[in-house]
Write a structure and sequence with these properties.
The complex is a heterodimer of chains A (137) and B (110).
Chain A (H helix, E strand, L loop, with lengths): L1 E7 L5 H13 L5 H22 L7 E8 L3 E8 L14 H6 L6 H9 L2 E7 L2 E9 L3
Antiparallel strand pairs in A: 1-2, 2-3, 3-5, 4-5
Chain B lengths: L1 E7 L4 E9 L4 H13 L4 E12 L1 H16 L3 E5 L3 H10 L6 E3 L2 H6 L1
The chains are: A alpha+beta (137), B alpha/beta (110).
Pfam family, one (chain A): HATPase_c_2
Protein name (chain A): Serine/threonine-protein kinase RsbW
EC number (chain A): 2.7.11.1
Chain lengths: 137, 110
Amino acid sequence: MNYQLKIYCKTTALADLRSFLQATLRELKLSDKDQHQLTLAVEEVCANLIIHSHQCNGSDQIKLEVKESPEKIIFEITDKGKAFNLLDYEVPDLKKVVSEKRKGGLGIILVKTIMDEIEFESDKGQNTCRLIKWFRS
Amino acid sequence: MLTIETLKEENYDLLIIKGEIDASNSVLLDEKMQEMKNTGSKSILVDGNGLEYISSAGLGVFMSYLEDFQEEEISLKIFALSPRVFEVFKILGLDQLIDIYETKEAALEA
């Protein structure tokens, strides 16, 4: 199965993204907990792009494709903003986040913990981030 | 959709969160937390029963107050989180930093 969604780069589009993901993931045989966490991880990446790569420019768009195979599910997120490679960011130390009163950084921990694999490529101004979750029986 | 209601009880302030917190509305939570701090609250109880979803934007708000609350001896307790929302707190290890209880009664007794 293959599902697609395009959202504009504004944070209010995140609710639409969640609705789309919830409807899409409901069709797969995933636990409630897994559906919730996959939705969260994809949203974290999109929120990062909207805020940091596109500065909430409502005329820019992000495309999400959900590809499912018997052994894994792939969330492919493409955009044409400033490249934001999650893999370049180290998982911050939680104590440091607290002491520095930082509100950022937590999303990266969530994405890296929830997903099994993360791929990133940038080609001719188009960035593609792939979040992969393997099904385990 | 998010609503945050505050209730002043005799010994504590209650923050009732309903709906979903993400990057579009986490500022609301920040404002309410700031308001509680500014009005001299010494004990804040967060009712998480109606909290359906929270992303890092909302979790970050809670985290950003932890040090100030510790310094000013303000107690922060969260109760009645749904299992899936509680799981997200656990992924980040926030269950080790914030006191989380199953019920309001348990939070009040602790």
